[in-house]
Amino acid sequence: HLYDGVVILSAQVLICRNYKGDVDMAEIDHFMPLLMQHEEEGLLCPVISHGNVHFMWIKHSNLYLVAMTNKNSNASLVYSFLYKLVEVFTEYFKELEEESIQDNFVVVYELLDELMDFGFPQTTDSKILQEYITQEGAKLEVAKTKVPTTVTNAVSWRSEGIKYKKNEVFIDVIESINVLVNANGSVMSSDIVGSIKLKTMLSGMPELRLGLNDRVLFALTGRDKGKTVVMEDVKFHQCVRLSRFENDRTISFIPPDGESELMSYRINTHVKPLIWIESIIEKFSHSRVEIMVKAKGQFKKQSVANNVEVRVPVPSDADSPKFKTSTGNAKYVPEKNLVVWTIKSFPGGKEFLMRAHFGLPSVENDELEGKPPITVKFEIPYFTVSGIQVRYMKIIEKSGYQALPWVRYITQSGGTLVFICFILIIIYKLVIIWTAIDVKSESQLTFFFFFF
Predict the structure, then answer these.
(1) Strand 375-379 to strand 423-424: parallel, antiparallel, or no bridges (unpaired)?
(2) In terms of residue numbers, what domain contains 338?
(3) What spatial distance separates the first Cα and last Cα of the chain, rounded to whole Å?
(4) Is 160 within a domain?
(5) Exposure string over 196-217, b if 16+ CB within 10 A, otherwise e
(6) Is 159 inside any structural domain?
(7) What global pTM score does this model have?
(8) In the UniProt record, does the keyword Cytoplasm occur (predicted)?
(9) Are 148 and 198 part of one and the same domain?
(10) Where residue 388 sits, what CATH number does that domain have?
(11) pLDDT tens for residues 295-330?
């Protein structure tokens, strides 16, 4: 059991659904005043209480999604459900905001009734919901026949009778890197948060088995470890057989049709900044400021970073900008108080310089250099950081058709900023490798990835 009611509101209540009747829905009138009071006191909390009623809330765009309960509910499940609401509504309305709720309140009520029943989550997959809750009047006749089998089937995330002329699976291994560097240039902490996403275009009801270079799996089987990774905080889609994974680390599942996130994980590992940034700031009698920024590529010379963008913050009262760069172009963005230095191609091992000169008013400015820090964005093709690999993908379907899986590795920016003195160093951006997987044997697959 999650909670008794859910309310969507902005400045006023837009829509609400009372699932059990244990909580008076008029209690929501206390939410906004309490939220504003907590904001003023600097004690903003994801759970707000009024008497014996608890409000658990999230904010999306200009909306607040609030769950109300008077019981000791599982908060983590409540928040998972609220974020799932956002995901489903976004799938239906493209943009979830006040106008989309007002324009589609009938569909919203239908979705709230299907997503949860008497406080218990039910069907939460948007693709399954779209089979019988539709916004198009012409499709409403389909709903008159019968409820789709996916609602009562053991495999509730996939429909029967799916057919494709060409059977393919696209696997995206997406990793976000968080690096924290102190003022001395030492890496204080670093980790990788990853996810494996699928785009499945397979006929019938296939079973897939995915093999990774998981160190625990290699230890269980007694094989030579080679290059392996240790995954922590692993979270799976509901289609994965958890008992199978716990027993022998095999990722076995019947996939949802179309796009889905198969799993997410975290890897604790030392990651060095791939582009190292150093800067020197000089102020002259509060009349002008000069900034020198040096960028060095700390990756292999064979690789090239594309579309590098270095964002350098400057004082809000700076004027009369002048720039000099050893490569690329620099421009001043006054509305964001930034200098944006762009480099289309940045080879590994190279160093580039950018100098900026600004005038300052005679009045002393108390702004601190480096607030906010310098940020860097870039993309490096054919590059991975953690070393995780999809070793094989086996597709088993009773009709015996042949299918072609594809793998793409992507490294992108994480949420943790990286500082050196006043400088933020790294934001990783889209690193792509496309690889075709031969599904005949595991040994061929291993060689194919080694070759690349």
Answers:
(1) unpaired
(2) 275-379
(3) 49
(4) no
(5) bbbbbbbbbbbebebbbbbbeb
(6) no
(7) 0.64
(8) no
(9) no
(10) 2.60.40.1170
(11) 998 888 888 888 888 888 888 888 888 999 999 999
